[in-house]
Amino acid sequence: MASERMLKLGVAAGAAGLMALSVAADLLSSTPEPRRIVLCGLLAVAPAALMWQCLRRLAPRAPRMETVHSRFTDDDTARPTAYSADARASVAHPPSTDTMLALEARLEHAPIALFRIDHAAGAGAVSPLNAAARRLLAPGRASAPQDLHQLLAAQPVGHRQLVSFDTERGAERALVAVSALAVQGASQRLAALMPVESELEAEALNAWRELVQVLTHEIMNSLTPVASLSRTACGLLDEAQANLPSDIHADLGTALDAIARRAASLVDFVGSYRSLCTVPQAEAQRVLLEELFDRLKALLEPQWQGKLTFSVEPASLEVMIDPGQLEQALINLLKNASEAGTQAQVRARLSRGGRLRIEVADNGPGVPEALAAHIFTPFFSTKKQGRGIGLAMVRHLVHANGGTVRHARSVGAGARFILTF
């Protein structure tokens, strides 16, 4: 505002100077003297130049339009005619400053991470264009931003595909699409990256939950009458014992008892999987992790005999979470650790980006690399008597509280699981 006021004063001063010189020139015209008239003309140059400069700076500037020639494609189908018409319209009617600011604001707050790939600035120089892209490169997200840059620079134009990159929470999948364009004669690429790991994981969990619900319902419908009829048949066999030979009675008794036992075992087996479908809604509350770890230590100490340690850094670390569900997830992990090794550690700390990171590690043989991708899948187990529900339940409980769980490769022996919230 101050500069604008000064410019207006400059215009007024220039105008006043020109008016004064015009009056002087009019008075001199009655007795013309060439030297005085030339002097007045020279003196008029300064106020005229001042007034012109001030007026030029006060004049509103129309936003400069960049000439853009683009090859935007949608499902490999180019539409240059429609784009050329839009470009001609934008050149004929350039948008106002408010419109440009609104467009910049929408771009800045778009939920998709946008990156510019400039081949003129180097071998695929990648730079973020909006807040979502900058957050993706900030501490706590992509663990190797340079690798992500190389991944984007290597993507072909006009194709959508699923890519994977490493983050502080583990490998994350994202959908990427790249378009080519030329801005002021310079070739560039625009990459749109949408992380979909959470959505894919949620859909996978929902699919497994629905499948387990259908299977358990159908199996229970068949098992219930089998178990009931086998018990009834055992009672009828005892009543008819006097009318049957002893060897036939013994064989029938053994067969019916086996049927009853297997039916009861299957009912218990299927019932354990029903728990995946009946987990209550998480009720988050402020939890002091040191107190939660103290409760777990008191509960599990007799089993581990002093070989289970807990640590929290800092001791005042708190989290908004369902304490019962977090405890159950950690109990399941520690149960697996007790079956595999003799020592275990649970450590909680803040990772880069301010995220809570809980690590559960043991000294057992670890998870074979070929099986690591399947250990959270329901029904999958590496144990002979395992049901494949412990880690599936851990994943379900952690995801219900807005977190992720992954198996991390240990530096030494043993298995290591990382929970991130």
UniProtKB/TrEMBL annotation:
<dbReference type="GO" id="GO:0016301">
    <property type="term" value="F:kinase activity"/>
</dbReference>
<keyword id="KW-0902">Two-component regulatory system</keyword>
<keyword id="KW-0808">Transferase</keyword>
<dbReference type="InterPro" id="IPR005467">
    <property type="entry name" value="His_kinase_dom"/>
</dbReference>
<dbReference type="InterPro" id="IPR036890">
    <property type="entry name" value="HATPase_C_sf"/>
</dbReference>
<protein>
    <recommendedName>
        <fullName>histidine kinase</fullName>
        <ecNumber>2.7.13.3</ecNumber>
    </recommendedName>
</protein>
<dbReference type="InterPro" id="IPR003594">
    <property type="entry name" value="HATPase_dom"/>
</dbReference>
<feature type="domain" description="Histidine kinase">
    <location>
        <begin position="214"/>
        <end position="421"/>
    </location>
</feature>
<dbReference type="InterPro" id="IPR004358">
    <property type="entry name" value="Sig_transdc_His_kin-like_C"/>
</dbReference>
<keyword id="KW-0418">Kinase</keyword>
<keyword id="KW-0067">ATP-binding</keyword>
<dbReference type="Pfam" id="PF02518">
    <property type="entry name" value="HATPase_c"/>
</dbReference>
<keyword id="KW-0547">Nucleotide-binding</keyword>
